[in-house]
Write a structure and sequence with these properties.
Order of helices and strands: HHEEHHHHH
Structural class: mainly alpha
Helix content: over 70%
Number of helices: 7
Number of strands: 2
Radius of gyration: 17 Å
Length: 165
């Protein structure tokens, strides 16, 4: 079993209810957007360019995702780049607006996560394994790909690794 399938299967054990998966499809991108906004301040000069904490986080995360899977990693790298760009735009707003958008997205995203786990009747995966916080966005991309009929061998391998419930 590949590392990708192991990671997705472990996460999927906590996400079998369709309502839970649906809330994660919206909640996780909102959380990532909120993080992107909040980590787009401060701006740090580095020679001729400026960097933000989000730029660093996005590069490190993208490398991690690309190492797990090239296709899913490329989608996540592009999404992280988009979030970094959008977050930098919001960070240029007033402090109140920046915090409202960043914290609002983050809180709404997490609220959706917990609502989903209410439907699931099971605690979130991160309670047992903090690495699932990294796997969550990968799971969303994988589920979207599966819904589009893509990467079906990965889907079958992932579902085959799940314990009966």
């Amino acid at each position: 079993m590949s590392r990708l399938v192991r990671q997705l299967s472990a996460y999927a054990e906590y996400h079998r209810n369709g309502h839970n998966v649906a809330t994660h499809m919206v909640g996780i991108p909102l959380i990532l957007f909120g993080i992107g906004v909040l980590l787009s301040r401060p701006v740090m000069p580095l020679g001729e360019v400026t960097i933000t904490p989000m730029m660093i986080v996005a590069v490190v995360a993208a490398v991690g995702y690309l190492r797990l899977d090239l296709m899913f990693g490329a989608v996540l790298a592009a999404f992280l780049a988009l979030i970094t760009w959008a977050g930098s735009g919001v960070a240029a707003w007033s402090t109140g607006a920046w915090l409202a958008v960043g914290l609002g997205s983050f809180v709404v995203g997490w609220t959706l996560q917990f609502v989903g786990h209410y439907f699931e009747g099971r605690k979130p995966a991160f309670v047992d394994d903090l690495s699932s916080l990294f796997v969550g966005p990968l799971f969303v991309v994988a589920e979207a790909a599966f819904m589009l009929g893509l990467r079906q061998p990965v889907r079958r391998a992932m579902e085959g690794a799940l314990r009966p419930h």
